[in-house]
Amino acid sequence: MLNSTVINRNTPHLNTATSQVGSRSIGSINGNGGGSVRQLTTGEVIKGEVSDLRNNQVEVTLEDNTKVAAYLENASDIAIGDTAAFRVESIDANGITLKLIPKTQELLQNDTINRALTEAGLPKNETNVSVVRELIENQMPINKKMIQQILVHSYNNKDVSINTLVLMTKHNIPVTGVNASQFQEYRNYEHRLVKEVDTLTDSIPTLMEHLSQENPSEVVVSFLDHLLDILPMQESADANEIVFPTVRSILSDEQRQELVEHLENFNIPEATKQAILDGSLSLKEAYTLMEHLQKEAMAVDQNNALQIQENFLEEAATAGETPNMELLEQELMETEKVADQLSHPILDSLMEEYSLLRQDQGLLSSFMEDDALFNLKNMLTEAGFAQELIDSVDPELNGGNISSVQFLNAFKKALPEAKSDIAGFLLQSREFKDVFKAALMSNWTLRPSMLKDPESIPRLYDTLTSQMKSLHSLMEQALSGEDAAKISQQSSHLNNNIDFMNTLNQFFPYLQLPMRLHNQTLHSELYVYTKRDQLRNDPNHVSVLLHLDMDYLGPLDIHIKMDEKNVNARFSTTSDEIKTLLNANLPFLAETLQNRGYTFNGEAVAEDESVDIVKDFMEAGVKDTGMKRYSFDIRA
User: Cβ atoms within 10 A of the Cβ of 262, count?
Assistant: First the structure.
């Protein structure tokens, strides 16, 4: 027995006169052993380690090494070696009765952490405590081998959190420097492919511009030729041939009839009227017609304005009066314009469709004004490029209806015949930079129309992977300098992102979709809740989470459950204003889906809570169950 005083339950005489309930004082108990002992009071809370436990008889060693022998009411909830708090329930002639105070979760965890580190022979410093705490929270072993494994990972990856390292270890993700860095970025929402693509499409044209300023033209042209060799533009049908839909696919029979009646006052060939009525007129032909009519109408309005002005001035001169210019301006404003007669909702809808199609196809006319197209045409002419390429960008001949991808492919073919000294100046131009960037963006992102093709997404990732490796290699071998190093690093990082995405797909179906919408790029992510085997066997029952980062709507999470033709959706936003806007427009979505044979139920909600979506899905995969709740990752 330790050299300490024992307060025994069977002590016949107790002196409690010097303390109130809940307090502690030092006094004496005249018992079997005699001597000075610690005095206890009813209601007092004591804390110590259980040094002996037999049935309901417990011995507790307090912090000052005093031992308390007592009767314990709930002895089955504790064991020898445990540290706990006890309340003194009673002190009487029969001795002391204690009651165990249940520990909070935090106290229990702290005790477990301390014991684990003691058994592992490790010091109780901040890092070691953090490791054990994360292991406990992730329900992993807390033995010495596991603790030391995480500590080694932490030493080798100092910028990665303990939580990330534990989670990777739990799911058998190799803890390499690249994987740890990528996983950390995914959990911090710094992993967006579209952002990396955006950065790279800015860096490459800037590199070409700087090279053109610092090197002979023939060197720059040669490098561009090599660059285009490793960045081949997509050769899909929609990239090489712009297909314009007919008005039949846009307007109903009644709308086409109404359009012809509206245009009766204009000089339109009968064949064109018939093409509108039967719907065979293409959208491009409709736009060309409207553009022609608009120019004619504006010319008529201009002539009418000149005639009104001449008549007004002539009348003033005849009357010997000074012309009242304010009156003339008012008369001009009140005169009905022929161009205004062209305005009609059906025409507006056709022009909107044409504008959206140009943007979707990446046509030069969708992001370049006529002045810029003329500048590009003149530079191509001076450099001696093929006439076919020159005509393709002429706004008067073709209206700029060539895509950036088509242009760059044709540019590469014609480059060997061009004058390298003048071509070098072309590469420095703002116009070429804009076209080059648009072509790269078209090659490395998805348009909504492309999602109809199930191969479009894997094809995009294959393109990115192969081209990033080649680009990284070219920058390291052929160039030096800050610009080249930056591009090399960016291309390597983008490739690592894709590789890690493939790693995550071992746990749950997940895709980043770098989308290109009208005048903006869009970060989106698709998480599939439904297990892979269920999805293969029954593709008509699926649950997914689609995350979008929109310029105007902000971050938006859409949880969709589809059972056959029944679609349920929950739109989660961070803004009450956006929630109201979405709810107001959901009936239109329901109508659109109904026209395609689906029933739709949806709601928009505003939520503030942020969820670790990657960990959430990984945990679901480990448990081999579907997600049992709606989870929305709200972020910008």
Answer: 16
Burial of residue 259, with CB atoms counted within 10 A of its CB: 0-12 exposed, 13-18 middle, 19 or more buried: buried
Tell me how far apart the alpha carbons of residues 456 and 453 are, in angstroms, rounded to a whole number: 5
Written as one letter, the residue type at 587 is: P
Q: Tokens standing for 407? A: 């242009």
Q: Is residue 396 pLDDT above 60, yes or no?
A: yes
Task: Report d(CA 90, CA 83) in Å as an integer.
Answer: 21
Range list of β-strands (E), 10-119: 25-28, 36-39, 45-54, 57-62, 67-72, 83-92, 95-101
Pick from 437, 438, 380: nearest CA to 411? 380
Long-range contact set of residues 551-556: C-beta below 8 Å, sequence gap at least 24: 551/520, 551/522, 553/578, 553/581, 553/582, 554/578, 554/636, 555/634, 555/635, 555/636
Rounded Cα gap, residues 434 and 427, in angstroms: 11
* Overall average pLDDT of the 127-137 stretch: 86
Amino acid at 166: V
Residue given tokens 């009968």 in the structure block: 270
End-to-end CA distance of the chain: 65
Neighbouring C-beta atoms of residue 507, cutoff 10 Å:
17
Helix (H) or strand (E) holding 515: strand 510-517
Cβ–Cβ under 8 Å, residues 56 and 67: no
Give the closest residue to 10 by CA, choosing from 78, 84, 68, 62.
Answer: 68
* DSSP code of residue 509: -
What's the residue count for the chain? 636
Contact 40, 24 (CB under 8 A): yes
CA angle, 28 as apex, 25 and 30 as ends, to 5°? 150
pLDDT in tens, 161-216: 898 899 889 888 888 889 988 888 887 778 888 889 989 998 988 888 888 888 88
pTM of the full structure? 0.66
CA distance 619 to 463: 31
Distance, CA of 625 to CA of 608 (rounded, Å): 26
CB 630 within 8 A of CB 570: yes
DSSP class of residue 49?
A: E
